[in-house]
Design goal:
Four Helix Bundle (Hemerythrin (Met), subunit A); Hemerythrin-like; Hemerythrin HHE cation binding domain-containing protein
Length: about 160
């Protein structure tokens, strides 16, 4: 294990990567459910509606944590990162909009009691956007935060997100 992977660094990495893994797992479950060949029945509808609502809530909460807690610390630690962090926020906005459209279309499908081509297209778009975004965070942003932030700042992040 290198220096970045020890102590609080490992905890910060573990927390955010764990959050990302959980969000991707929810998205994957929803994708499989939507892509399953079975008809749109009451059981499938209930699962899709509940999973979509939970995914949207979790993703929006996660983005809020990053934007209000982690991103400001990163940009304070290194002002040259203002533009990359701004780009990450723009990706958050696009993902938010797509997920909210997905949730809205899910509710429309619930009313009509059938899936739609738009729902599948939104699922595909959400999957790609989230996968690309979280990969960037896992490979670049979170390791960078570990290197830039002092131990007390990393501890503060973990306390604010309620994981320490």
């Amino acid at each position: 294990m290198n220096v970045v992977e020890r102590g609080e660094c490992a905890t910060l990495l573990r927390y955010f990567r764990g959050e990302h893994d959980h969000l991707l797992q929810q998205l994957e479950t929803l994708k499989k459910l939507l892509y399953s060949g079975s008809n749109w029945d009451a059981e499938k509808e209930e699962q899709i509606v509940a999973l979509t609502a939970d995914l949207v809530q979790n993703m929006l909460h996660h983005f809020t944590e990053e934007e209000e807690i982690l991103f400001p610390l990163i940009t304070q630690a290194n002002l040259t990162l203002v533009h990359p962090v701004s780009a990450m926020k723009k990706e958050h906005e696009r993902i938010r909009a797509t997920l909210l459209q997905l949730q809205s279309e899910t509710e429309c499908c619930q009313k009509t009691k059938q899936s739609s081509h738009r729902l599948i297209a939104l699922m595909r778009e959400a999957w790609q956007l989230v996968l690309d975004h979280l990969s960037k965070e896992n490979l670049m942003l979170i390791p960078m935060a570990n290197q830039l932030l002092h131990e007390n700042e990393r501890e503060a992040v973990l306390k604010k997100v309620g994981r320490k």
